[in-house]
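Worked problem 6 (solution included).
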Amino acid sequence: MKMLQLIRSLVVLACLLHIPLGYSQQVLRVTTIPEEAATEQMRKFGPLSNYLEKNLGMKVEFTPVNDYPAAVEAMVNKQVDLVWFGGFTYVQANIRSGGKVVPFAQREEDTKFRSVFITQKNSGITKLTDLKGKQVSFGSQSSTSGHLMPRTFLLEAGINPETDFKRVAYSGAHDATIASVVSGRVDAAALDITVWNKFVNEGKVDTSKVDVFYTTPPYFNYNWSVHADMPAAQREKIAKALFALDMNTTEGKEILTLNRATKYIPTKADNYKNLELAGRSAGLIK
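Solution. The predicted structure is:
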């Protein structure tokens, strides 16, 4: 009887203090950096959400955010449990949280990622130095492939966007970046190579009018991250589910293709050290 009363007292105390008795999370809250429109994000994540629910035995809720900083803040403030970050947004989140963000999975493609610079075919732009005096767009200011690394390679080529370009624009997302070049609002732009290839493969851009004139060297990029406060067993369960996705199964092929992946592999914080160095060198991390 005394034991029953003790248990009841502990339950009441836990409720009052909002402290769970053990880790019994019922909902996995997920978001991603908004590389594309919210409707496209939802379409891409739908099958993966269903797959994770089935494999984790819990409800998965996906909530799109308006911009890259919002994804960072959502993780730092533990408003979400799992985030698809670009390499640079992971770095920003990890700094903001005091080293409390843990990257654990990435696509195989993210170990050798690249950005592309595009322009209209009749622009006369064929190399990076031709961008001097032009209007150039990046994606989000927090984007790895749409800003940090393109800026880094421009600086290495002796080109300072703030002093050498006629105007610097930020589109906010890769699809908007492409649209800005197609419409002629800017002379050239930099973006994620996988988004560019997707648009080309789906016939959403006419490469006889707009095409790539420069492709960057490779670098580490995207990852799935969780907060360090998530129990290791839960993180490992999510990782196991992601690593089990296989292009040879119908479900796996659909999910991986939607997410522009061939498979997911383990990753670690050290893989993004060079991005932090690049961010500091470019003045994007103070």
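Discussion: The chain has two domains: 19-111+221-281, 114-215.
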